[in-house]
Structure formats: C-alpha cells, structure tokens
Write a sequence for this structure.
C-alpha cells in the first residue's frame, strides 16, 4: 500500500489550524533512501488561510540554523506538496490527534519515509506502538526504525515567521 493510499485507511479531519505550533521529530522509518541526520529537530508550523502551512525547522546541531518551506494543500484533507526551491514532493498526514502526535509520510525522488512527530520531545509508549502498527499496515520495514537523538541544547522558539510570500498561492496561479 502506498503512503498516498494510506490516508483513506487512517482517516483524519481537515483542521489545519490545529497543526499550528511546535512539534518535535521523534522517529523515522525509511523504506527507500538513506538518513543523513539522526538528530531530533524542532518544527514550527504556521497555518495559512488556504489550508496550507509555512514550516520552519530549527537545527540545534548547526547553531540553530533555520530551514523554511511551505506545505501546500493538494486537493484532499491530509495531502500536501512540500515546496522548497525546485523541490515539489508529496507529504501525507496519515494519522494524528493534533494535540500530541502526527504520523506523516514523505516521498522524494530518492527517499520514502514515515515520520513520527510529537508536541513534546518524547512520545508515549502508546503513540510509539501506534506508529509501528501504521508502519506495518503500509508495508514499511519496522526493522529500519530510527529513534532520533534528543539534543541537550534546543533552540529558542521563533517570535515570528518571516514573510517570504505564499509559495502555495504562486503555484495555484500558474
């Protein structure tokens, strides 16, 4: 079963504003590709009016370097396109409760990954079990599970997002 088809198996509701705020990358399973950074990162989401998001990833291991990109709604709830420079990759929210965890599938030309995100730097055992269950249901190799390294020095949350314009609106008008 592909990541894209999994969204119909695990139903989510279309409430983008509930995703806003801080998340932590907890774990990843790669079906294809190689992981080059095994550190936990802070991810900040800001919902946009068009059911899309601005994303900022903070990397403590690189003096809190910040990466920015947009997730643009892709027609159905839970399906997005990650727009960053020349990259345009599908991202699928497979399951979430919005308050504590999100299981998200990402696909690029060379990587197919299933990510676990949490609102805190630790996920509960029940959430970890759910993540493994979902991974098995969509045929991800659970023996390749990597729990990301918690960093001792995390970054200060941003006071505001810079305004780079809305990549999603630019894409819609083309």
């Amino acid at each position: 079963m592909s990541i894209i088809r999994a969204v119909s198996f695990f139903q989510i509701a279309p409430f983008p504003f509930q995703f806003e705020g801080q998340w932590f990358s907890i774990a990843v399973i790669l079906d294809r590709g190689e992981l080059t950074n095994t550190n936990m990162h802070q991810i900040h989401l800001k919902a946009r009016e068009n059911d899309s998001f601005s994303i900022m990833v903070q990397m403590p291991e690189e003096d809190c370097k910040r990466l920015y990109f947009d997730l643009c709604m892709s027609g159905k709830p839970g399906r997005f396109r990650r727009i960053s420079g020349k990259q345009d990759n599908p991202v699928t929210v497979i399951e979430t409760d919005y308050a504590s965890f999100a299981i998200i599938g990402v696909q690029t030309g060379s990587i197919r990954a299933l990510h676990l995100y949490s609102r805190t730097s630790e996920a509960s055992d029940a959430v970890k079990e759910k993540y493994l269950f979902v991974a098995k249901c969509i045929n991800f190799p659970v023996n390749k599970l990597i729990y990301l390294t918690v960093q001792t020095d995390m970054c200060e949350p941003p006071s505001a997002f810079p305004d780079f314009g809305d990549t999603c609106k630019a894409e819609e008008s083309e």
